[in-house]
Predict the 3D structure of the following.
Amino acid sequence: MTMEGNFSDFRSRTVVWVDDLVNLTTAIGRVEHRQKGHLGTTFRVLADNISSRLGGGKVLLTALHVVRDYADFRSMELRDIVVRLDRRNRQEGIKVTLVWWSEIADVAILRLQSEPSMANLKLGEADVLPLARTEVPVKVKTEDGDWRNSRLFPVGFPRGGEMCIPLEETRFTERVNVGPLSLLHYLGATAPGSSGCPVIDESQKVAAIHLRYGDSTQSRVSAALLGRHHTNEGLSIPSLIQHVRNDIGL
């Protein structure tokens, strides 16, 4: 008779998996106002993985509402906004410019005006995050033949504090299509200041950009089963890429 069992669909993470995820977090940064402090989270990716029309190199993704109040959409300048790509808070903030934005998607693409020092990066630590090329499935099949919800991990700076990685209650609950956009709903600890953070899937690619916490469109029955009536919401990366390419080209 077995004396051990797993009475939930929560899956533990290996130390290697967690270590690999931590190595990715060096490409995640804070969006700050020089006087007002922390506004949200951002992350760095290769521009060509989104569209060749973005000018190449590396760009930053964040939620538009994080920087909207400080943006001059004519000059593409962001007044008093800096990005600090350093989870240990040792580097100075770097000024950024606006590259592309979308009101309907609530997403902004930024570019650093100067390169951060790579001296603090250790072997294996990332300076860009890999992007998911296909939509993450809501359900995946386990080794036992059962089905469980996929897991999504919003990694950011809730309330402007230390970078946090939720590891429990991170279920991907539903995908909602709103016009041309695909929105993902998922559990996981977030707070003001998390907006714009990467939502990383189990293969450690960015599946979505976190936008907000709010009401779920799912039924009260399924919400009751999950123990909540509210959820996180993010824009899927494949949907964002298609949205950018529809606007400015491949």
Remarks:
- The longest helix spans residues 237-248.
- Residues 216-229 have pLDDT under 50 and may be disordered.
- Helices lie at 15-24, 64-67, 220-226, 237-248.
